[in-house]
């Protein structure tokens, strides 16, 4: 059994503010160490549960967060950026399951840790008519290869979002948000033990959760936080401007729609001010 792990930082336990998640933040060094600890717990759990190979994608910022020397040496590490499939780059049909660790809820969710969808300049994303965030986007990419998202660790809001989108998914909450930038957190040691146990269970007894498959042409709708963001997102050929803040793109398939989204996020980040 092969497991692919996508690792973000905002949903890691004892990570609450941008001082943790920004690479120039004063708490970033300890946050990346906590992220590495939770990913190690998931890797160990996957192997405990019978996995034969684990690949981890470092999925926060430019993909240079996990500390390679401290990572479980049985896992392969996908690091750096840009990557066409971004947070799950490297996944393919040889994998049996996607695990998400350190995940957070979609943009504009209340009481959710450091909430966003790829960038703070995007307010809402719909794919195939379903409002989604990073959990849904990555579940859909995995689904394009027939791989189900079976386990997710993150904040309580991320767990509830995953359960609503993917009935049957196994989740593990390591903290509960108080607004966007405060949280009640488990001790890191307890969080890691719980992640390891839940990942083991997800690998040994895979939940009956189906791959998120969006077949055929798929409509992507992106609502930016500013009109200047939508101006930039609309520079992608074949986009349509739906209103002041919103652009849409019809992808030949979910992978192509995601590639357009990935390019849009790069463009909207170039807007220096409103
Ligand atoms: Zn994220």
Report what the structure shows.
The protein contains 7 helices and 12 strands. The strands form 2 sheets. The protein has a 7-stranded mixed beta sheet with strand order 3-2-1-4-7-8-9, sandwiched between helices. β11 and β12 form a beta hairpin. It has 274 residues and is α/β, with parallel strands linked by helices. It has 2 domains: 2-106 and 134-204, 3-Layer(aba) Sandwich (Rossmann fold), CATH 3.40.50.10780; 218-268, Gyrase A, domain 2 (2-Layer Sandwich), CATH 3.30.1360. Helices cover 31% and strands 24% of the residues. The chain starts with a strand and ends in a 6-residue tail after the last helix. The model has no long low-confidence stretch (mean pLDDT 97). The longest helix is centred in the first third of the chain and has 21 residues, at 28-48. α2 (28-48) packs parallel to α5 (188-204) and α6 (227-233) packs across α7 (254-268). It binds zinc ion. Zinc ion binds next to loops.
């Amino acid at each position: 059994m092969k497991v692919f792990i996508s690792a973000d930082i905002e949903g890691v336990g004892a990570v609450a503010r941008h001082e943790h998640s920004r690479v120039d933040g004063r708490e970033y060094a300890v946050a990346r160490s906590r992220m590495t600890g939770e990913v190690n717990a998931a890797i160990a759990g996957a192997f405990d549960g019978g996995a034969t190979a684990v690949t981890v994608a470092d999925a926060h910022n430019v993909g240079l967060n996990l500390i390679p020397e401290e990572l479980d040496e049985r896992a392969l590490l996908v690091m750096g950026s840009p990557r066409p499939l971004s947070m799950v780059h490297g996944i393919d049909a040889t994998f049996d399951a996607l695990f998400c660790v350190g995940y957070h809820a979609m943009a504009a969710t209340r009481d959710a840790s450091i909430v966003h969808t790829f960038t703070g300049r995007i307010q809402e994303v719909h794919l195939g008519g379903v409002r989604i965030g990073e959990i849904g986007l990555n579940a859909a990419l995995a689904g394009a290869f027939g791989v189900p998202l079976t386990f997710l660790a993150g904040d309580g809001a991320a767990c509830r979002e995953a359960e609503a989108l993917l009935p049957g998914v196994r989740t593990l909450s390591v903290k509960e948000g108080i607004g966007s930038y405060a949280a009640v957190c488990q001790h890191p040691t307890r969080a890691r033990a719980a992640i390891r146990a839940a990942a083991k269970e997800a690998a040994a007894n895979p939940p009956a959760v189906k791959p998120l498959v969006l077949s055929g042409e798929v409509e992507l709708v992106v609502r930016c936080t500013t009109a200047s963001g939508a101006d930039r997102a609309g520079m992608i050929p074949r986009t349509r401007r739906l209103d002041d803040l919103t652009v849409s793109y019809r992808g030949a398939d979910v992978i192509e729609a995601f590639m357009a989204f990935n390019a849009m996020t790069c463009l909207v980040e170039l807007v220096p001010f409103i």
